[in-house]
Amino acid sequence: MTDRETRRFSGPAAARAARALRRLQRDGVARVVDVRRDGNAVEVTIAPPAGSRLSRLAPVEARKLLRDLCGELAAAHAAGWVHGRLAPEGVVATGRGFAVRDLAFAQAEARVAGDAPRDEREDVRGVGAVVYWALTGEAPLRAPPEALPAALRPLVLRCLHDDPGRRFGTLDEILVALGAPAAARRPRRTRWLVAAAALVAVGGAGVAATVMRGSRPAAPRAAAPAPSPAPDPELRPVLAVGDLGDRGLSERVVAGLIDEERVEVTRAARGASFVLTGRIIDGGDRLEISLVDARRRALALASRVRRDADEVLGAVRSALALPPGRPVADVTTRSPEAWRAYVDGLEALERGETVAAARSFRAAAADPGFAAPRLRLARLVGGAERDALVAEVAPLAVRRRAAAELRAVAARSPAEEVAALEALRAGWPHDATVGADLARAYRAARRPSDCAAAAERAGLRAELAWCRLEAGDGDGALAAAAGDAALVGDIALALGRYGVAREAFRGDAARLALVAFHQQGRCRVLPPERDDETVARVRALLAYACGERAPTAAGRAARIQAILAGAEPGPLDGLPLLEPPVLFDVALARLGAGDAAGAAAACAALAPEATLAAYCRGRVAEAGGDAAAATREYRAFLDRWADADPDNRWWRDARRRLTLLRRQ
Description:
single chain, three-stranded antiparallel β-sheet, alpha+beta
């Protein structure tokens, strides 16, 4: 490889690009030797690192590649430069490791063209793509992810996530996950000077001075000053508790800090001021933890502690100059079995398995002093069980966060729940769980626009899709559902786009049977070939609608069957939580059984903006003899479904009914 390499770039922003590249040359992070401008062109000369082109690597070498790329590009980011176009051909293997050779050329190409500034997370994806290629010889996802070694697979795939918000936020976070924070390569005193500067924003100059005097921050020996007012929740630092190698331990750390007024603790790193991560060492007895100041890209804490939540909390509180807290067992539970069941419930909720989650929360609630599982379970159930849980948890909800959650759970109307959750979000504005609950509450309160906004902030694909649908944005709903075939099919079914629904449900006999029922009125009771909630729900609905006796099914399907059979007190209790197609089926089934009042109640449970609602209201009005109202609703329905499939059963039926009403 030659000692010098020159390239010429032409574009409308050559003058501005030349000035930027001269700054890059002064910063010394891209090996720029010379920058010359010639009219609308810029010539850039670099001294590329000596080495060979990147080739396939063993896992150990790929790990070093990941560390070297993150370290070099993190230094460029600290100086304000983002590569944005990293590829295998832009990386070389040197005698000491790996290096980026074309940062200056990437800057020249982008700036001469006048491209917008690039986000640092583009380099996170670029690093992941280069490592993927080095391990598999293929571009990302052309080779199956299973081709990646297990030790590196989660890191590389997270770098490549389609949603930038779910990638690593910075390259330093990748280094921390690898056990090699970028700041750790600086001289020891420099590292603590940086950490001290980071801590000034949290604990003041006194804490910073304490940090600089020793290897780790110590508690001030002087009397503490008078407590200052609690900071504005929107302005206080956000601490994200990431992967500590033990989900139960991570949740205990969150629980130990959830009521802290000087810092907001969350489980998501996006937008966080500090990120806490760790890994299990010494055969499982100890943890190596790192606390990164994401705003300054500095290491605020690096320590080895026992695998104990109180030890982790003590180290974090000391690093952030927070007052001592109560033992975490005092604010959660002293029962390992109850805690394990609670964490199992949280994991089941994340997978969407509400029946399994409720079972785990009930097991955790065997500890009579444990409030958290009761609060979670109360959000999953209704009626008398919910009221009993609220009564049980009331004397336990003495902490600020638990009391705020209890007000939301105990709400007697959607409007009350929205008000309670909005107050909860005001205290914990970055908590994704609160944002998710608020999105669902907005939906139940018939506020689809607010629901869509909250769901988008919380990253809830399903809620966002349904709320867009209920706001009248069918195309937006399908766009939000993209990537989840079952959700796409449900949305398409609600829109009457049966071709899209059939394609999405390909291979799913239960859902295809539901499409056939909606489209053509064909009745087919499904055999009990599988026992999951979706099949059982569809089987029960089809059996009822077709005049058959619905079989007993577990979980949610059993609840729907009880509602359909009218065997449950308050037969529509819980219906607002069901998807529009299910509510629509309930209404039609009740009409077919001659239960006009039940059909009207099911239609009323549909959001007024839902696509199916107008047809449903028209059928109810027609059954009640109100021809004017039925005509109005059928017209609205036909207008809304103008882009539905030509063979749409309900669209054809609405036209037929409207014609008959006009003849009367």
